[in-house]
Amino acid sequence: MSKVIAVAFLLVCAALLGGTVLREPVASAAQSIGATIVGPLDAQGDVKVHEQGTASVSGTVGLSPSADTVKIDPSANAVTPVSAPSDTLGQIVGAAAAAGQEGTTPLNEVVDASLLVVNSNDNVDTILFTHNGQLVFALEGPAGNGTSHYVLPFSTPIRFDSVTVSCGNAQCDAGVSVAGRRVG
Question: Which of these, 159, 170, 164, lies nearest to 110 by C-alpha position?
Fold first, then answer.
């Protein structure tokens, strides 16, 4: 019986000690954590957002830069395969020039390229892609501290209608292959 009284006495002492001496550390540990939002709030005190509601999605989704093979049909709420574009291009141009010269090859059409593959010999200084005489895109060849082979996917297609190569100290040439579409 004396053991039970001793345990009860210790419990009462621990409760008194915890409620008096250790009250402050226990109370501060039990406080709730507060968060303050400093962003823009609307009249009701909610965080402002620009878009609200259900988004409507439509269009074509490409699984690779060279082939759009999935179409989202919002009326059927389904994804359906579609055929590849009929105007996917291959090798479209080869350009060459004499040593120290430039050679421009105009295309007979305007091209929107989503993928360019460019191969050149070691004497190419630069390769320029232009549209209506305006520079659209430029690459450095091996003579210009670049490389002789490029594979360039574009998230936004580039539009061009001619390719110009500039040569270093010897005759040079480059070939351009494109995945994209003909514009005109």
Answer: 159
- Mean pLDDT check: name the lowest of 41-45, 78-82, 121-125: 78-82
CA distances from 147 to 17, 35, 126, 139 (A): 78, 54, 10, 9
Structure tokens at 66: 């060279």
- The token pair at 129 is 């892609």
Q: Are residues 95 and 117 in the same domain?
A: yes
| Enclosing domain of residue 64 | 58-85
6-24 residue pLDDT tens: 767 766 666 666 666 556 6
Claim to verify: residue 70 and residue 96 sit in the same structural domain: no
* Overall domain count for the chain: 3
Cβ atoms of 92 and 177 closer than 8 Å: yes
Q: Could you tell me if residue 6 is inside a domain?
A: yes
Q: How far is CA 136 from CA 132, 158, 159, in A?
A: 10, 7, 7
Angstrom distances, CA of residue 86 to CA of 67, 142, 150: 10, 34, 25
Q: Are residues 96 and 167 in the same domain?
A: yes
Q: Tell me the whole-structure pTM to 2 decimals.
A: 0.52
Q: What is the CA radius of gyration of the chain?
A: 35
